[in-house]
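[step 3/7] fold_predict: job queued, chain A
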Amino acid sequence: MRFHYTELCTTYSIVARDPNTGYLGGAVQTHQMGVGRLIPIMVPGVGVIASQSLVNQSYNPMALEMLQQGIAPKDIITALTASDAGASRRQVAVLDNTGAVTAFSGDGCIREFGHHEGDGYSVQANMMTNTTVIDAMRDAYENSTGDLAQRMLATLQAAQAEDGDIRGSQSAALKVVRGERTGRQWESVYDLRVDEHATPVDELARLVTIRRAQLVDQDGHRLLAEGKLEQALDTWREARRITPEQVEPAFWQAVTIADSKPSDDAVAIAAGIFNTVMTGHPRRAEWLDLIGRLGENGLIARDGAADELLSAIEENERGTA
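[step 4/7] structure written:
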């Protein structure tokens, strides 16, 4: 045996750039634990690398350095593979912040393998059960809608629908970063991992939905800070619609409205939001206690806001009983 199994990261993946937002992203699934620690690798405003098959981990730092220097993906692939005696076993895709992309599949990869370079994206796979995986991934990405994360997720789902990895499924990951260089490499829009799961792509889909709701929720907070109360309330309703099972966003919506008091009826609105998700919740009493603690701690800063909110919540509940 000429390799150790932990080097064998055979998988299917996508790297992509959203032409509307400039966001960069990548997503992956494999039958090995914790694929997200290896794939995808990216830096905001720089680019994305997906290095798979018998992974050469030195590809990642070398490719990122060359991307930061403005070297084209096709030249990066040439440099990586030319200096690697094991290149025939590698599969790698490199995408820059303009959407230029190049992929490589060595002829020593385990079949079924291949890749497709599209407009601002690349899909690649190896050790697939069927030859249909690459075409399915291409079609899914090009015909899907939604934000970059949703489109990449659809690509993984299409690969899995064709039976994906011949060994089955175990882990998955999806990441999206901004398209401009911020100097804050740790920041991401989506950074989701399913390290061990019987159906990791399905679990990743659940996490993508929750994260998308968080992003909508953040938009609501931004709108409120800009003094746009009605728009904020509409946006928050949409966030709650996306993930009605998530109670914490609604809690902080209520607290934020009560604390900032953007209108005369703000506290009553906040109480209604709280009771919408908390009535009948098994930890309702604990969430109510937390409001008081936030007031004590100063995180609800307006004098009397915590007590006002607690009273309004009780009154609202009596009114809807």
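[step 5/7] annotate
The chain has ten helices and eleven strands.
The mean pLDDT is 94.
exit 0
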